[in-house]
Amino acid sequence: MKLIVGLGNPGAQYVGTRHNIGFDIIEVLSKRHAISVSKRDFKGVYGDGTIGTERVFLLRPMTYMNLSGQSVVALSQFYKIAPQDVIVILDDVALEVGRLRLRYKGSAGGHNGLANIIQLMGTDEIARVRVGVGASRQGDMINHVLGKFRKEEQEEMGIACEVASDAIEYALREGFPNAMNRYNAGSKPPKEGASNS
After folding, report:
1. 3-state SS of 123-162?
2. Is 144 among the catalytic positions?
3. Which one is catalytic: 19, 33, 111, 144?
4. Phi, psi of 123 (to 5 degrees)
5. With 90 as the cut, is the pLDDT of residue 10 above it?
6. Interval 64-97: pLDDT, tens
7. 55 has which bridge partners?
8. How far apart are alpha carbons 113 and 12 in whole angstroms?
9. How far apart are CA 23 and CA 90, in angstroms?
10. Are 89 and 4 in contact (CB under 8 A)?
């Protein structure tokens, strides 16, 4: 049993922003696997179903980003999901737009949502899928992450959401270390099923 958490902020004003890429990927996974993410509890919106042979929960915390851990801890404790069975999806300003980086443990790297999860769960051994949203041009980080993608970035981010979903599915089938080996290689990972030649 796995818990897949997409980080973001609730509210219409945050839809499509860089900080909400985790919410967007949860939406892709929910559509692919017909998992309705509509139950409201544990300070979030969630759904449960199966991806392949694995029972999964898909969660969007509704606490606002900096308190994401409250929702993650509440659901994981209720369903007795260990921290090592949690996968967190988040934006990363240190990566170029569309680039993925998978890690199974480590620091929050300056991301407040992940930092809160690590703090409240009491361990940094939490798998995470970081999705590059690019660095701020003007150095105004808050407006950058709460801003929407530029027109020329939107197609690339749509592909990134699909590839990140591929990576999570692969991790569920083959294990997270194998997914790291596959999707961290090269500048940008291939779309699942695409030719590597």
Report:
1. CCCCEEEEEECCCCCCCCHHHHHCCECCHHHHHHHHHHHH
2. no
3. 19
4. -155, 150
5. yes
6. 999 999 999 999 999 999 999 999 999 998 899 8
7. 50
8. 19
9. 9
10. yes
